[in-house]
Design brief:
By secondary structure, this protein is an all-alpha fold. It has two domains: about 10-95, Rna Polymerase Sigma Factor, Chain: A; about 105-195, Orthogonal Bundle (Arc Repressor Mutant, subunit A). The protein has helices at about 10-20, 20-45, 45-65, 75-95, 105-110, 115-130, 135-145, 150-160, 160-180, 185-195. The longest helix has 22 residues, at about 20-45.
Amino acid sequence: MQSPGSTDEDTLWWQRLQQGDQDALAYFYERYADWLLKYGLSVLYNRESVRDGVQELFIQIWNRRQNLSLPQSVRFYLMSSLRRILLKEITRERLTTDNFPEDAISLKEHSELSASEREAQMHVHLMQAVRQLPARQQEIVFLRFFEKLSYEQISELTGLDYQVLRNTVHRSMKTLQKQLTYGVDWLLPLIVLLGI
């Protein structure tokens, strides 16, 4: 994924959106909807609620298009707006994150897997472990390691203090390390995958 920030193309499309161009809304939906769904699942692990939240976001943008100013970063604006919608949903429904079903794999099966299958399996184990973290830690891990946002950007998005973010990431990594102690062959790729 590209780093946050409006491209010249986003800026032109945003101006068209403000003028009521439906094609501009379609542009932003096509460009960002899948990414927003992925991000939303780091805030609230309920695919239907996140999908509804993404739809609600684009409805709100269309309904308020004439009052919208040009954001410094369209992507960051969409992310923070979706986050607000989902946090309202969490508060309203008091939803909890779902757990992935357990998918144990034997050592014999592990040794027979190809490299791509091992990587895919490792990714499943990683996502299971991340989903077991508290919701706040899930979101911060997603933003820091999967979206490669800086601590300053995450602080701006979440409203959390820089040091609180550092401490949260540290606690999350310790928890993930404990959960993923399948041996060095599982732990080393995790470290590489997360870029620690």
